[in-house]
Automatic annotation (TrEMBL):
The keyword Amino-acid biosynthesis applies. The keyword GTP-binding does not apply. It catalyses: L-leucine + 2-oxoglutarate = 4-methyl-2-oxopentanoate + L-glutamate; L-valine + 2-oxoglutarate = 3-methyl-2-oxobutanoate + L-glutamate; L-isoleucine + 2-oxoglutarate = (S)-3-methyl-2-oxopentanoate + L-glutamate. Acts on leucine, isoleucine and valine. Keywords: Amino-acid biosynthesis, Aminotransferase, Branched-chain amino acid biosynthesis, Pyridoxal phosphate, Transferase. It is an enzyme of class 2 (transferase). The modification N6-(pyridoxal phosphate)lysine is found at residue 196. Its EC number is 2.6.1.42. This is branched-chain-amino-acid transaminase. Pfam families: Aminotran_4. It comes from Dyadobacter frigoris.
């Protein structure tokens, strides 16, 4: 079965909300497009693939996901090309990562034809929701959760998979001030830090809130053992440009294998820029900052794309990052990625898919 042969029942909305959206002032996650794709896992298989108007679900209060957290998600984007086509960026990688998360959380994997077939059909139906404004895109949220109405700790027998989409603008209005977290942790070896499971984000809210009360926008997580090594930042991987190299923590089971991160690594290789994927201590970064060897520090993720940090705070001291030059790596890689995603430049990597 290919993506095009998946049987999907489609019920279109008779009242589009498209006119209510101000596409020139999009707030992240505020507007949700007209339709959603749903499939149910029952009797050991995915069935009842359907597209329906976006709306409320009806759930048992005993729904397993609400109690024991068997819930995973993905985040990806579609862009509008100048020709008016909808272009998906590396969606197959999101599908693969979704299934990795599923395995770790004892959830069933999603066949490619359900994930990609449902997604493609949904994007065709809601094509008018893909913004064409500069810096805007359609954020895509696939997720799966346990639906057994059973109050006992065990893997659920039934699940629901949903995809909905939101037109979005840019994430941070200005470069964030980030604080290196040396008490709370996001993930420990052997845990679920390498997955996009719902609980990871719930656990990060309190430390992030404390940092916000101190005037920071985001955290940089450090390792659970020593709080000495940099892991990632919020929902972004972290990357540095120093001594003429691109340096980033390697991916392990405590960090998410980000698709933006690996795209940037591939582009750096393509441009002949040395790349180091390794352990990076906080001290090393602070020293490079003090010695003016750090050109930039930035977060990389689907929501933000590339987000250069304004300040890094460590042990009570705020370190300002140098002003970014027009031709800095961060600016160049952001522009190049945007050009690939919107079809403005040839996609030599084979990352985009026309819907
Ligand atoms: C989603 C996410 C990222 C970024 O991954 P992308 O595939 O680039 O969007 C990084 N870290 C965490 C914790 C995430 O949830």
């Amino acid at each position: 079965m290919t993506a095009d042969t998946l049987q999907i029942e489609i019920k279109q909305t008779d009242k589009s909300r498209l006119q209510e959206v101000d596409f020139n002032n999009l707030v992240f996650g505020r507007n949700i497009a007209d339709h959603m794709f749903i499939a149910d896992y029952r009797d050991g298989q995915w069935q009842n693939s359907r597209i329906v108007p976006y709306g409320d679900l009806s759930l048992s209060p005993a729904t397993a996901a609400l109690h024991y957290g068997q819930a995973i998600f993905e985040g990806m984007k579609a862009y509008k090309s100048e020709e008016g086509d909808t272009l998906l960026f590396r969606a197959i990688d999101n599908w693969k990562r979704f299934n990795k998360s599923a395995e770790r959380l004892c959830m069933p994997s999603i066949p490619e034809e359900v994930f990609m077939g449902g997604l493609t059909e949904l994007l065709r139906l809601d094509a008018a929701w893909v913004p064409s404004q500069e810096g805007c895109s359609l954020y895509i949220r696939p997720y799966m959760f346990a639906t057994d109405a059973y109050v006992g700790v065990k893997p659920s027998d039934t699940y629901t998979f949903i995809i909905f989409t939101c037109p979005v603008g840019t994430y941070y209005a200005k470069p964030p001030r980030v604080k290196v977290e040396t008490h709370f942790i996001r993930a420990a070896e052997g845990g679920v830090g390498g997955t996009k499971c719902a609980g990871n984000y719930a656990g990060s809210l309190y430390p992030a809130k404390l940092a916000q009360e101190e005037g920071y926008d985001q955290l940089i997580w450090t390792d659970a053992r020593e709080h000495a090594y940099i892991e990632e930042s919020g929902t972004m991987n972290v990357m540095f440009v120093m001594d003429g190299k691109l340096v980033t923590p390697f991916v392990s089971d405590t960090t998410l294998d980000g698709i933006t991160r690996k795209s940037i690594v591939a582009i750096a290789h393509h441009w002949g820029i040395p790349v180091e994927e390794r352990r990076i201590s906080v001290k090393e970064i602070i020293e490079a900052l003090k010695e003016n060897r750090l050109e930039s520090a930035f977060g990389a993720g689907t929501a933000v794309v590339v987000s250069p940090f304004a300040t890094i705070a460590y042990e009570g001291v705020d370190y300002a990052l140098p002003e970014l030059k027009e031709d800095s790596f961060v600016n160049k890689v952001k522009d190049y990625l945007t050009e690939i995603r919107t079809g403005k430049t040839e996609d030599i990597f084979g990352w985009t898919l026309k819907v």
